[in-house]
Amino acid sequence: MSKKRNTGISLGGIILVLAIVAIIYLFPAKPQNATPTALPTTQSQLSTPPASNEGQSTNQTGSWLQVFFTNPNPPDNVGNGIDQGVVADVNNAKSSIDVTSFDLNLPSFVNALVAAKQQGVQVRVVVDGVNGTQKLSASESPTKQAFDATQTLANAGIPVVNGGRSSGLMHDKIIIIDGKILYMGSWNMSYNDTFRNNNNLLRITNATLIANYQAKFNELFVDKKFGTHAQVGSQTPNLTIDGVQVENYFSPVDNVMDKLVAYVQGAQKSVRFMIFTYTDTNLANAMIARYQAGVDTEGVIEDRGASQGAMVPLFCAKVPVKVDGNKYTMHHKVIVIDESMVITGSFNFTKSADQENDDNVLVIHNPDLAKQYLQEFDRVWGQGKSPDATKITCK
After folding, report:
1. Based on the number of CB atoms within 10 Å of its own CB, is 336 exposed (0-12), middle (13-18) or buried (19 or more)?
2. Integer Cα distance of 251 and 165 in angstroms
3. At what angle do helices 281-292 and 256-265 cross, to 10 degrees?
């Protein structure tokens, strides 16, 4: 009896093992790198993954907003840059792609526009009259061949509007795909801005914000009104998206600098900023006043020409400020206030950006988004260096 019972148990065990193997074979586990299901945007879910050591870091902040940062150290990480997600969206376009870019010479992006055009997608482009028509030199190109974006677009029959410079700079960096996806930020669709310069880029799917940017694009491309001739400001400057307060402004119509000064003046705990060009006296005075009132204030300014702008009064007032450590360009235009408000876009802290240039700004009130930008600030600050005091004269 016991021998038969032991044999039965062994056979049953074998059958059980075979059944488990069959289940595993027929129904394999989902790969860990599969695309996750998008989560609704709530503050508890606006989390920040660790920054990538590759050419970009990507932070999912909910169903309507993603944030991307370039990582230009080491530079020239072709094939893994901030352009990859953008190109994927361009490749999936069904009806229309509208683009504005101050600089435009990135082969991956321009070639994707051409491919979209060949598939019947309407493609329209606006560029700055000088920077936007410059070729990518052979020494800069990853293929060691010069690339002429303007000629490539023209050969494909893609209309390109030249923003000129008679009434300010066309400085916007905007991509609108099928009226459903918006890209905006400090990132130009250029080789340097993708692989060498510090930049941030937002991917947005909120219809109201997209409508704001579409109206601005139409003024540039259709009406050809630029800079001081612009009449279109933000159609819906204040809105709430999934519980997140958002403000949207366009210069020179919306008096952007006055708003930035007011935001800084309202800071209670902290101010962090990263900026390519900073010359506006009123904004510098606001930051100095908050610092002197005990608000924790720090910032990084692009090294080129920093000693001629706001760096001087900030440094002389003992505000902790650095010049960037990127051997190319620190191109952010960001302020983070009280670890809860992010100001970002194409807007440099200058009088010309406020009163002459076509620029855009988003103000997003969310602590978790602010955390992501503060991580980027810490990275840029850590690479920064103290300004050369011998080049600064304090009165």
Report:
1. buried
2. 15
3. 10
Find out whether 392 and 311 touch, Cβ atoms under 8 Å: yes
Strand partners, 136: 147
User: Where are the extended beta strands (E) located within the chain?
Assistant: 56-60, 65-70, 96-101, 122-127, 160-162, 174-177, 181-185, 200-204, 238-241, 244-251, 270-275, 296-301, 321-323, 333-337, 341-345, 359-365
Query: Whole-angstrom Cα distance, residue 188 to residue 394?
Result: 35
Sheet with strand 65-70: strands edge to edge: 56-60, 65-70, 200-204, 181-185, 174-177, 96-101, 122-127, 160-162
Question: Which DSSP string corresponds to 192-232?
Answer: HHHHTSB-EEEEE--HHHHHHHHHHHHHHHTS---GGG---
Cis check: omega of the bond before 252, within 30 degrees of 0: yes
Tens digits of pLDDT across the chain (395 residues): 333 334 344 444 434 434 433 433 333 333 333 222 222 222 222 333 333 334 555 555 558 999 999 988 666 677 789 999 999 999 999 999 999 999 999 999 999 999 999 999 999 999 998 999 999 998 887 778 899 999 999 999 999 999 989 899 999 999 999 999 999 999 999 999 999 999 999 999 999 999 999 999 999 999 999 999 999 999 999 999 999 999 999 999 999 999 999 999 999 999 999 999 999 999 999 999 999 999 999 999 999 877 779 999 999 999 999 999 999 999 999 999 999 999 999 999 999 999 999 999 999 999 999 999 999 999 999 999 999 998 898 98
Distance CA 84, CA 114 (A): 16
Question: What number of helices (H) and strands (E) belong to the chain?
Answer: 11, 16
- Return the ∠ at Cα 32 (arms to 31 and 35), rounded to 5°: 90
338-365 burial code (b ≥16 CB/10 A, e <16): bebbbbbbbbbbbebbbebbbbbbbbbb
Domains and CATH numbers, the chain: 46-391 (3.30.870.10)
